[in-house]
Amino acid sequence: MTGIKKIAIMLIAAIVAMVAFVSSASAAAPAPNYGTGIMVDGNTNDWNLGADFFANMYEAGDPTKNVTSKLYLRYNCNEKVMYALVLEQDPYEAQLSPDDAWIAINTVSNKVVSGSTGDDGVPPDFAWVYDGSDLIGYEASFAIDEGTYKILAHINVAYGGETDRTSATVRDNGQPALDLTISCPITPPPTEEEWMGCTPGYWKNHPDAWVGYSTTDTLGAVFGLGNQFTTVLPTHTLLDALNYRGGSGVEGAAQILMRAATAALLNEDKFGDDYPPYATEQELIDAVMDALNSGDRDTMIELAEQLDYRNNGNCEDD
Fold first, then answer.
1. Tens of pLDDT, residues 45-87
2. pTM of the predicted model as reported, rounded to 2 decimal places
3. What is the pLDDT of residue 192?
4. What residues contact residue 290 under an 8 Å CB cut-off, 6+ apart?
């Protein structure tokens, strides 16, 4: 084989490898995952890192370079809100730089959320994500209709003593280059099946909207909770429960359930028959306590998911 032929073959192989590598940059793109259950609170427990994965993020947004972080997306079709999670990729470390943590749609100047956005329970929201005391990324939300877009997610990372290195999804001359196609797979329910319901984040940030309960009411007094857990206590208030972060094991499941259950109770109290699936507040409380007393994580998570689905209803701020 001549030297020229060898060079040609090597060049073709490199091009094929490059195409395959670039394709892997968006293994789940252009479609996000669809569903409910995300609250922008700096907690990753309500994410499914398998199903919600959207795309790799690279140094300088160049897919020929190292993967430095990852982007996860979940679209709530009821809210028409995109929820995003950006996590560092070992050995790179996320940097606390609000101006460099953002998501842009179609053009880099159209930043729909950033590290300076804040978190008040109404999109757009932003929260840094920590593992213990270590910053590992950020969580965000922003309103967006169904359609076809270009998306660019951005964060700064550090590696090998060098800080402020750009980590981004693929871009073209600095502009968003990653396709995002939002097309809800489920037909919205007819009007007669719509319901009222507000998320834990809403109730946490709108205590003035509470009707029959106070932020200082305790879980023991309201739910009849005992001392069967160490992180969910009868002396904790309803507002404490709305701030629970969840976690692993039975204790984490109890926190996840009580966060959803507290929002559900406030929804039942405010909206009554317009908030399914329980006819009365007592029926809801009984179902929650039965799940907690089972001591079974799967039972608690299943009920929490059911309540969370209903908590993502039509939320009207009277």
1. 899 999 999 999 999 999 999 999 999 999 998 889 999 999 9
2. 0.58
3. 52
4. none
Radius of gyration (Cα) for the chain, nearest Å?
A: 22
| Amino acid identity for residue 145 in this structure | D
Domain 26-182 top-level CATH class: mainly beta
Q: How many CA atoms lie within 13 A of 261 on its CB side?
A: 34
What are 141-169's pLDDT values in tens digits? Answer: 999 999 999 999 999 999 988 888 999 99
For the chain, the domains span 26-182, 191-311
Residues 43, 45: Cα–Cα separation, whole Å: 6
The pair phi, psi for residue 107, each rounded to 5°, is -135, 150
SS (H, E, C) 135-159: EEEEEEEEECCCEEEEEEEEEEEEE
Annotate 55-82 with three-state secondary structure.
EEEEECCCCCCCEEEEEEEEEECCCCEE
Cβ count near 63 (within 10 Å): 22
